[in-house]
Amino acid sequence: MRRNPFSLLPRAARPGARPLRRARWPAILRAIPQGLAALGPGLLAAAAGNDAGGIATAAAVGAASGYQLLWAYLLSSISLLVVQEMCARMGALTGRGLADLLRERFRVRWTALAMLVMVLANIGTTIAELAGIAAVSELFGLSRWIAVPLAACGLAVLVLRLPYGPAERVFLSLAALLLAYFAAALLAAPDWNAVLQGLLQPTPPRDLSEAALLLTIWGSQVTPYMHFFVQAAVVDKGATERELGSIRLDATVGVVISSAVAIFVVIATAATLHTAGVAVEDAATAARALEPLAGAQAALLFGAGLLGAALLAAGVVPLSTAYAVCEAFGWERGISRPLREAPLFYGLFAAVLGGATAVVLWPGLPLIRAMVASQFLAGVLLPPLLAFILLLANDHRLLGKGVNGPLANTLGIGTLLLLTALEGLLLAQSFLGK
Amino acid sequence: MNVQHGCQHQAMGDTAAAVTPLCVSLLIGVPLLDAEGERVGTVRDIVVRLGTSPWPEVTGLVAQVAGRDVFVPYDQLARLDAAGAQLRELHLSLERFVRRDNELLLFADVMDRQMLDVAGRRLVRVDDLQLLSADGRLRLVGIESGLRPLLRRLLPRVLARHIPPGPVLDWAEAEYLPHQPPVVRLQLPRERLARLRPAELAALLDRLAYPQARAMLDTLSPQVAADALEELAPKRQAHLVEGLEEDRAAAILGAMLPESAADLVEALDPARGERLLQRLPEQVSSSVRDLLHYAPRTAGGVMYPKVATVPQGTSVAEALAALRHPTTPRPRAALFVTDSAGRLVGTVPLGLLLTAEPTTPVETLIDPDIPAVRTDEPAPRLAEIMAESDALELPVVDESGRLVGAVAADEILEVVAPPPQRTGATKAFAT
Predict the structure, then answer these.
(1) Which residues of A touch B236 (CB under 8 A)?
(2) B158-215: pLDDT as tens digits
(3) How far apart, in whole angstroms, are the C-alpha atoms of residue A89 and residue A83?
(4) Any CB–CB contact under 8 A between B45 and chain A?
(5) Tell me: the pLDDT tens digits for A336-356?
(6) B22: closest CA among B128, B153, B179, B159?
(7) How far is CA B302 from CA A397, B294, B407, in A?
(8) Closest partner residue to B430 among A44, A169, A335, by Cβ?
């Protein structure tokens, strides 16, 4: 029998053994990754919410009305913060998704209405993302007939069948290129007095198109799917009442970053395109706002950033849609299920992504305008969802002491009233004529 | 899953004893009629009492009469169907309805909520409920879910009435999940859950929202709860245990294996973990505390402290007899030989032990290629050592060579080959 004289000795005592690794980190170092892990759902929701439609809208608004509507961005980011916090809080306190809560509280008929509204808004958002991909591809001379179907199929595989995390990091890094707008805005030497005035001095809409523009801005900022997403992500993280603080911080940081990007896109485009009297009709003009920073590379920078933002949302929005509908109605769902177990889930996913692809491939569709229009649609559809969320967030039986405080309710109801008033104005005008 | 098939939609019966299932969704909102057929109110809800039968009996209705909710006992009804609820006599108490323990309101408490389908190991959404009349009592028999009941509830009543009752999940096969916090006290039989294998129960717990999962842990016996918790990730365990009463949490912790208990305490808030440990019997808490000294992902962190040992000089027959003794920890893949001071002498693979002559001394069966590992050996390294030495179980020793525990291949597999994890945004939509 083979005899190893050292085999009974502990490893470390054997000649030539590696020194033992210290496995326990100091407490402070161990706390950092935990803190970073807590900063997640809200940040991601906000990053994905700052999508192609949002960027296109901000560029179009900046080019068309200069600094004048910056206040709407400031106020709508407050709306976004309030609603995101509500949903994140509901997720942490109940451990359940938004659609689940909607169904239990509002029963079948109202839930069906809420789901219809959400699906329509999400199809609009998906159209905006795919239009963003088409715009970038055409910026670089690739036909949308190749780029869009390719992207849709690629995203479906990526989202449904692959780990997704690595791809997400790539998309996020691309989307982070949009932070270049900070520098671009500074380099464009905007009139800071006008910027400040635009931010802090709300101007009531003078005509129909301005009212519609306000709705569009709110729709681009407070995208309906973000609320379903942030709540699902908080639940998935397994956050409980104890992590409420970090969940709120996460939501706030996410909203601040994404709103800051949108505001700086407006400033950059206002300082360059608006002063030059150029309207944003395609991606190439939108990219010109980055010229003070990137010069000839502006189109590349803008294209990559927009592509990242579009890809980040284009796969997740259809997924979130299918999941929420199945959650509300109690159908088998989740990408870990095989197709035959969850046909409705995969069917909905395919319908949203496929439908949006078909719309974007419509011959002659003006891409930038389609992106802005989808944000208008989101703005129009937002009030009913907001009303449902507000009712849930005030439900004592559901949240106990965690119901909305007076501040959240004032801001939430204020947003609801403002959007409803804008819609009423638009409806009245379109029916009664000018 | 027990699926019954509902019969065709009943004709408008004129007795309370329906022979085909009644759909609760069609009863909510129907008029309450007096004995002469004149409308006196509206049916708001249906009350069942949880009793000894697995199919709860309908005790009455909640009806809105003269602007207030009143209770209408079932035996005061001449009939109840989709056309209305008719009173037998002209008497009706106008006392306000109050909720009582062990009673469920079918619309308020059950409809549109999720229940556990125990046999199917999944959550089902209650889209509709079916009542069936047998020997003069109306009982809750089934849960209907899917497109058919949804359509019945979406469509206007005139059309909905023509959608016949569909296949149901037997009520007796499902577990009701009360509101959190509960509205009334309910005595729910949980024997079906206690009969599940721990891994299956854990999978069900994992699918529940944490307030519901906590409530369920509260109703299970500490041993059943502990066995199920051990199958969950320590972080999820901590989330669930954190919300429990401390007595209850300590009872569950005490029923867990020491190594699992240590993982859980590690994942808990330190102050809370310490308070729970103090509530445990000294003997239990000290073995957990010993394990807590070791870092996770080291041999000490993954080992189990209770191992089967025999002293030097034992014969094979004596060793086998010792292993059969009920207080001896069950051996996994090896028997460890120690000296009088508890220091490790060597490891005997069970296969060798079983096939050896009864009179052989166990020392001669020691496999010299199986090394001892120190408590601070990194866990991934253990996989390499196992592969090199062909061992399925490794002894773990402290600085003085004393045997403190052992690690088997299954714990190491969890470390080196954890189940694939989805990352990024799609993770939220995985299950």
Answers:
(1) 238
(2) 999 999 999 999 999 999 999 888 888 888 878 888 889 999 999 899 889 999 999 9
(3) 10
(4) no
(5) 899 999 999 999 999 999 999
(6) B128
(7) 42, 9, 7
(8) A335
